[in-house]
Structures are given as C-alpha cells and as structure tokens.
Amino acid sequence: MTAARHLLFPPFRLDPANERLWHGTQEVVLRRKIFAVLRYLVERPDQLVSKVELLQAVWPGTYVSDVVLTGCIRDLRKALGDLPHAPQFIETVHRRGYRFIAPVTTEPVVSSHYSVVSGQRVANQPLATDNRRLTIRLVGREAELAQLHKWLEKALNGERQIIFVTGEAGIGKTTLAEAFLERAIALGMWVARGQCVEHYGVGEAYLPILGALGQLCREPEGERLISLLAQHAPTWLVQMPALLSTAELEALQRRVLGASRERMLREMAEALEALTAERPLVLKLEDLQWSDVSTLDLLSVVARQSGPARLSIGANNQQPRRSGLPRHDREQVESGHIAPLQVFQLEHERPFGRQHFQRLSHLP
After folding, report:
1. pTM of the complete model
2. In sequence order, what are the beta bridge partners of 341?
3. DSSP codes joined into one string, 194-253
4. What is the location of CATH 3.40.50.300 in the chain?
5. pLDDT for 105 beyond 50
6. Cβ(64)–Cβ(56) under 8 Å?
7. What Å distances lie between residue 219 and 76, 79, 345, CA to CA?
8. Closest of 98, 87, 102 to residue 11, by C-alpha
9. What CA–CA distance (Å, rounded) separates 98 from 47?
10. Which terminus has fewer CB within 10 Å in the chain: N or C?
11. pLDDT at residue 342 is higher than 70
12. What is the pLDDT of residues 22-60, one digit of tens each?
C-alpha cells in the first residue's frame, strides 16, 4: 500500500501523505509517533508485527523501552475506541507483538489543492465512484449518481458547481442526494443541509442558508467556521446569536449597523471562497420550490463569481405530480418504468433569478 492512497477501515480513514486520521468528517488528532505506529500497523493488515520491528520502524536509531510502545498502543486504542480484551482494530499477541485485524481497503486520493492566488489547478486523479459500497440503497439512479460524482470532482478542483435535481415527489431525489453526500463525507468535505419551508407571503430571507450554516457551526470543527464568518461575513453571523456570547453579539451588532442587502450578498460570496480555500464544501438545499427570493439571489451571485472555490451546491426541486406516472420503487425499476428525474447544472455565465426558477417546475 502506498502513501498516494487513503487507507479505509470504517469508520476511519487514514491519510498517510498528510499524516491525518479521520472519523467521518471529524479529524482524530494523534501525536506524531502514535500516528506512525498506527500507519505501520494499518499498512500491514493481518500481519504479526513484533515489538522489535515496530520500535525500529518508528524510533530508528533510538533506544526506546517497551513501556513507551505500550503507552502508544494504549493511547491509540483510546482514540479508536478499541478495547484490548475485545479488539476491533489492534490485537495484542502475548509476548510477541501486535496485529491490525480490521479489514483495510484503499481509495485513490482526490487532489483538492488549488492555488487561489495563481488560479492554477493541480492535476488530479478521477474521482472513484465504484470502489466503495454505498450504505444508502440506490435503485435505478446509478447514471445520475455518476454524473454528480463527475461534478464533485470538478468542485474539488476549484470549479464551483451549482447543481439541481428536479422531479416529482417520491421518485428518488432525496435518496440520490444522500448517496452523493455520503461520498462527500467520506472525502472529508464539509457538508451542510438547508431546508426550504413552504410559506404564505414573504418568507424569511436566506432561511435555508442560515439553517445550514448554523448546523455546520455546531459541529466539532465549527469554531473555525464561526471565526471565518466573523472575519468575512459578520452580517450573517449576527443572525445566529446562539453561536455567540452576549459580548460578542453586541460587538458584532455595532459592526454591522446599517448593513445593506447588497453587503450581505457580497460578504457571503467572499466567505464561501475563504472557507473553501481551507476545506471543500457541499451545501444541499432541500425543496427549492419553496425558497425565498433572497436565497435565489445568493445562488445567482455565487454561480456568477469567477474566482476558484471548492464548492458544490446541490438543490432538490419538486415538480407538480402528473397523474399516471409510476412511483420510484424496485418493481417499477425492474420493469423499466422510472419517472423522469432531471439532473443538471446552473451555468455560471447566465444570471439566475425568479424567472429562471419558475421554469424548474416545468421541465420535461
């Protein structure tokens, strides 16, 4: 196994090249020598590794007692949630050494490095779409999922993507989107979900975006996102008071006093570029047919930005149900009758507004 690949032993993903361990989207912080012990064992699954071999590999040319190695194994088991008397990952072979017993698979690394200053993209390998088993049951939408993965590859390479999945209720839009998000999570991307809500009259501005950002800010690495919003988009952060102390909120309210709608749009466009320069982001918006006008304006602004951003925005849009069309289930798929489901991109050269959104409900 080479360092050019991620090593997968669910629910963990080990990145040898960057010396990082991930549990889903959350990084598991390990000291350098502990990571080296883990890597050496994972790269030799089901092999007995003696204590002497492990000491020489991790501490070459240095005398280290068995006590140090035992302490590293203990800390490693704690980080993995492993139990010495009932191990799932690291087995102790009495008086001989250790064996990594969990199944290990590999996944090609998807390069997501992009030079924001120069705008030069680093060549990357194609995004693998079939070397991992989906935990979400997907029936009859493999072609659409493959297309979504192609667009995800572009997003990881700095080409922002605005994607729509549209069709009638019950034909698999949400399942397709969740299968797509499963891949994004496995790649260590930030994933945020926003829900549009049917309203009567004028809806709350940016409701699904604020909901998605609030959810992301409450996750384990949310403090970094809060810091980025405070720097680049204070007019947005001030609308999420639960994330701030009283003093922080009052200071922020003074900063944004008199802010305009145009400032909010500009700030979020800049914040998304800053955020995705650090880590790719997938933003999923559900039931876009109920969106407020302000959210659509933001999508238009983000789509028309020319700067690089490792950003993918996916929106589900429900069409009015037509009588006589079958629902999306196994029997209908096997008989070859699947209700139409559209998957398409928003081209960044074209402005997107309410008049374009109306057409989403009448696609063939």
Report:
1. 0.56
2. 167
3. EE----SSSPPTTHHHHHHHHHHHTSTTHHHHHHHHHHH-HHHHTT-GGGS-HHHHHHHH
4. 142-362
5. yes
6. no
7. 23, 19, 29
8. 102
9. 8
10. C
11. no
12. 887 778 888 889 999 999 999 999 999 999 999 999 998
Q: What is the CATH number of domain 142-362?
A: 3.40.50.300
- What's the token pair of residue 99? 């064996």
What angle do the packed helices 51-58 and 66-80 form, to 10 degrees?
Answer: 90
What confidence tier does 233 reach under pLDDT thresholds 50, 70, 90?
Answer: very high
Tokens of 70: 């035992």
Residue of 189, 209, 269, 192 lying closest to 233 (CA atoms) = 269
Dihedral of alpha carbons 4, 8, 11, 14, sign: negative
CA distance 8 to 42: 9
Q: What is the DSSP letter of 317?
A: E
Q: Which two tokens stand for residue 5?
A: 């690949």
Q: Which CATH architecture has domain 5-105?
A: Orthogonal Bundle (1.10)
pLDDT band at 189 (very low <50, low <70, confident <90, very high): confident
Determine the average pLDDT of the residues in 337-354. Answer: 45
| Cβ 145 vs Cβ 179: under 8 Å | yes
Count of residues for the chain? 364
Bridge partners, residue 5, by sequence: 108
- Which residue spans of the chain are classified as CATH 1.10.10.10? 5-105
Residue 99's pLDDT band (boundaries 50, 70, 90)?
very high
φ/ψ (deg, to 5) at 50: -70, 160
The span from the CA of 330 to the CA of 95, in Å, is 54
pLDDT at 252: 93
pLDDT of residue 271: 92
Whole-angstrom Cα distance, residue 324 to residue 18?
54
